[in-house]
């Protein structure tokens, strides 16, 4: 689904890691871990096609347009923007081939799934950080994208929100969507997913997450 | 005072009628465009573009004399060119967009003034900057009506993309290729409205007609269609009352119209139900 060949990336022309070779199968669920500034978010941006790689190549077997959904870390949405939560979430159906009635049903389902039914008439200004994050996740869940890139999706979510999030990640997994999740919460990740990519200056390691947890501290000291 | 005073100048004089119809048409399309500029945090873009128009209009005048198509085309090319150069510098060098625009527009203004000097000063600079109702002859009026109608139609057509591109361009880029095109078309409409407006109310005054009703609308509604409607209506009423004021008090029309729009803005800042200064609002949360 996602193939990286000798991929190097980073801001300002400076490669953050040695060349990365990585092949992620369809329906795989992969975590990305690493210290601040190691290039986790930049990697997602390169996969999403927002940033150009410095060297190497990246191939996706789905078209980027409509095939990849990307949840940005730390939303910079203008809270004064005159739009209601309902309209924000319904944008997830942008490319949907469904008819009006089916769209309405799916939208209501998504709002209910993410506990947003009571908030749908609220403006963005009236939402808390966690509520906005749930709205963005609901929008993402409405897309038909086969590749989901989640950059710190746990940000601002309370305990209930976290339960919803990991339930959905499991559900998307069983639906056969390919997911990459950047997170700092190793405990949550090792509970819910198998493999992870450790990104660091001395090299990237793709391995079962349990193996990485032990190595992580020693590797970062070396780096 | 008889109510007849509110319309008798327009009944009596054809040039007043043309100024009214053209001005109202322009206000109705410029206001909604201004609302989108405010939403995109590009409120100063209108000002910059209005200055950017000047050298193009001057070249048009130099080559073809006082012809509306030449002035419009020159203004359009220069206005879009300035916006384009500013955007290009920003993208290539990382200079902030506002700094890039602020650097471009004094250059345009100065070169426009010099070009007008070279053209022999037959075109009054003050007229170009501040306009005159007398300038709205039938061809100008047709141009204004055409631009206004076209703007509203096109805006309705690209509304969905423009809205999402203003709020969350990254998301839109993931689901549609149309975002940058919608933005480009929108900027073209802004330039076109400023260009046709500069004849009637002046290159600098028309910015006021675009931005003041838009800024005022934000204090009355958080519902975008309502904000667009409100900005259009406010602008139209200001044109009408402004023309009357200029007629009866024998004042230049552009500043009258814009100062009335300014009055509407000040009243909105003070009295508007959404964060107006004199309305107590407990939740003024900072922008994120």
TrEMBL record, chain A:
This protein's UniProt keywords: ATP-binding, Nucleotide-binding, Transport
Domain of life the protein comes from: Bacteria
GO terms for MF: ATP binding; ATP hydrolysis activity
InterPro entries reported for this sequence: AAA+_ATPase, ABC_transporter-like_ATP-bd, ABC_transporter-like_CS, Metal_Ion_Import_ABC, P-loop_NTPase
Pfam family, one: ABC_tran
PANTHER family the record matches: IRON TRANSPORT SYSTEM ATP-BINDING PROTEIN HI_0361-RELATED, METAL TRANSPORT SYSTEM ATP-BINDING PROTEIN TM_0124-RELATED
Family classification: Belongs to the ABC transporter superfamily.
Protein name as it appears in the record: Zinc/manganese transport system ATP-binding protein
Organism: Pseudomonas guineae
Organism phylogeny: Bacteria, Pseudomonadati, Pseudomonadota, Gammaproteobacteria, Pseudomonadales
From TrEMBL, chain B:
Pfam families per record: ABC-3
Localization terms from the record: Cell membrane; Membrane
Record InterPro entries: ABC_BtuC-like, ABC_TroCD
GO CC term, one of those recorded: ATP-binding cassette (ABC) transporter complex
Superkingdom of origin: Bacteria
Keyword terms: Membrane, Transmembrane, Transmembrane helix, Transport
Membrane topology: Multi-pass membrane protein
Family classification: Belongs to the ABC-3 integral membrane protein family.
Protein name: Zinc/manganese transport system permease protein
Native organism: Pseudomonas guineae
